[in-house]
Amino acid sequence: MAPRANWKGFLRLSLVTCPVALYPATSDTEKVSFNQINRKTGHRIKYLKVDAETGDEVTSDDIVKGYKVDTDTYIEVTKDELDDIALDSTHTIEIDEFVPKTDIDSRYLIRPYYLVPDGKVGHDAFAVIRETIRSMDKVAIGRVVLTNREHIIALEPLGSGLMGTLLRYPYEVRGEKDYFDDIQDVKLTKDMLDLAKHIVEKKSGAFEPELFEDHYETALIDLINKKRSGAPIAAKAAPKTGGNVINLMDALKKSIANEKDASPTAKVAKDAIKGKKPKKRDEGQREMLLPIAGKGGKDAAKAAPKKADKPARAPARAKKAG
């Protein structure tokens, strides 16, 4: 099941308009997540909204937005006042201009979305806008309001739909000058650069994200499964460090030697992975998220993990942008 749309409205290029829906292109719901619990009782921690001065709990109806102007002074802004300054981009993505994709600095990129026609009407207008952008080999720049804030969005064709990427405003991007000023101007020899290039060439390949592995996620799943089954948890040895590089040329030569030793094994392993379909989350990884009979602690440690039917994948919740 597809996630819920983050936004629904209209896409407009001059007088050409069509209803569209905006969906998140990425998700973190498959990652292992934790709850905070009381060590003594094992119960989940509950957070309350309280008055900072009185300590009394405050209901949602009594909470309003306030802009801090002094230590204890706030300017209250109501929902009606925010609605009064609502922009046209709240309901419409207006395409303002077209720019070369290479002109967009990667520091301005926030997150991707999928833009599709909403409903049975408007597909012709959507196709006209999509193919116009495709034929010009450019990116359309527009504006959209998500979570009450206006964002710049860059639209480009992706198959039969459009991919929209939220962009940062200039005031959100820090300049590099303050960080790079103290970097020393080092003179490198041709031999050093040739050795470094040789290492890069040995490690060069195609971009294949299906080969990426989240090692921390795998370690988390292994840790939880071991604790669930009561298996002993061995202390991990401290990682070995290479120490400080004393001679850069020697380090480059040693790197090349290590690459030669490891390359046959690495190639066989990579080819083996390529021959398989993209790795999916194991059934056991889903099972570990199921509740365990008993109260936990010693009872849970004694209980062996029960083989469970693979549960249906829950629909991913739409994550609000902002």
How would the blueprint of this fold be written?
Elements: E1 7-13, E2 16-24, E3 65-70, E4 73-77, H1 79-84, E5 92-99, E6 109-117, H2 123-136, E7 139-146, E8 149-158, E9 161-167, H3 177-180, H4 190-203, H5 215-229, H6 248-274, H7 283-287, H8 298-302
Parallel strand pairs: 1-5
Antiparallel strand pairs: 1-2, 2-6, 3-4, 5-7, 6-9, 7-8, 8-9
Helix pairs in contact: 4-6
Q: What would you say about this model in short?
A:
The chain has 322 residues and is of the alpha+beta class. The chain contains eight helices and nine strands. Strand 7 (139-146) and strand 8 (149-158) form a beta hairpin.
Polypeptide structure, described:
This protein has 322 residues and is of the alpha+beta class. It has 8 helices and 9 strands. It has helices spanning 79-84, 123-136, 177-180, 190-203, 215-229, 248-274, 283-287, 298-302, and strands at 7-13, 16-24, 65-70, 73-77, 92-99, 109-117, 139-146, 149-158, 161-167. Strands 1-2-6-9-8-7-5 form a 7-stranded mixed β-barrel. It has a two-stranded antiparallel sheet with strand order 3-4. A hairpin with a 2-residue loop joins strand 7 (139-146) and strand 8. Helix 4 runs parallel beside helix 6. The chain starts with 6 loop residues before the first strand and ends in a 20-residue tail after the last helix.
